[in-house]
Known about the structure:
This protein is an alpha/beta fold.
Amino acid sequence: MGNQIVICLSNESYDAKIWTNKQHLMSRLSKHPNYDIMYIDQGMSSRYIRQAITEKNWKYFLRPLKKMGEGLTIFSPYFLPLIKGGRVKRWSWLLLFWFIKFYIKKIEYTKIIFWTYQPQAWYLIKHVKKVPGTTILYDCVDEFATQPFYKNNENRTKELLQIEALLTKKSDIVTTTSKALCHDKIEINPNTHYIHNVGDFNHFKQPNGELSSEEHLWLADDRVKVLYAGVIDDYKTDLDLIYSIAKELKDSHLFVFIGPIRISDEKIFKKIDGQNNTLFIGTKPYLEIPNFLHNADLLWLPYSISTHTNRVFPLKLFEYLSTGKFILSRNLTSIEEYGKYISTFETIEQAVLHLKQWPMSDSIIKKEQRIQLASKNTWESRLENILKCIP
Length: 391
């Protein structure tokens, strides 16, 4: 008897600097003795092609298929336009489908699972015959229609709404990371389950090294250190809120940001960066992020309130909770079930008040409760809950 084969149709490179659901889950599932994983990257990407050229990573072009361990194979079809391209895009998905059939033809297996994160994968999934031993799983972790790539292009949005509905309907199982996404998808497919995002508890529960001497400079500041770790953009992050709060608390609080900056509005970014109590450190390796979190006084999620954010369960929540630190977050409906473990705000005034009241509003007991909660919400637990849904 052979193993179960998982074909992961991802919308992100396995080698991405910031890992999310697909990399975390597939890396762990590949260690399971009963599963063999083929992780398929997002296809042609100008960003990754430029990065490979800049880093002189010629293997990216010469070895699109590579083994990453006993149970994990990565396929990076950089030559296939799987996201853009109209009719050419559809032919690319069909070509990929034929490649998968050829790849697994001589492999002995008991079951094949098409595990997709990419709505565009409908152009492949529609060719999959639902026969015994074949399962189609759509792990819906985001509200794609409200992302700038789709939202700012009417034709892309129209296509997305059509193909995602078709993908959802044909899937044997749909899993979602927020209740709002679950509500949307269950109307199309009754076999939809809410299994929210989690965190890498063992990685974030304690620092794993020291900050460099240069990075230590911000620790010398005697103001309260408020840290955000993640992508800083202008469709999830509330930049006006950040600017107003930083300006209000310029003498008492230092706001530190770790992560890539993807802000299209340079004017607002310059206003924030111009404050004497804001510090943008840039992207840091995943291995080093716990060191920054544990050296901060408190952590926050300065998100905007929108259709998008209310359908997104921030990965940062359980990463933050793993540290036991005080957490201040915008009152997103996606995380309201964990409101007793964090402090939330609606307005700038409420956020400022919370920041001023810390540390009087915190306690050792609350810290232990956060850590305990995070220890029960790990990538291993989310993987286990998803596998329970697969017959």
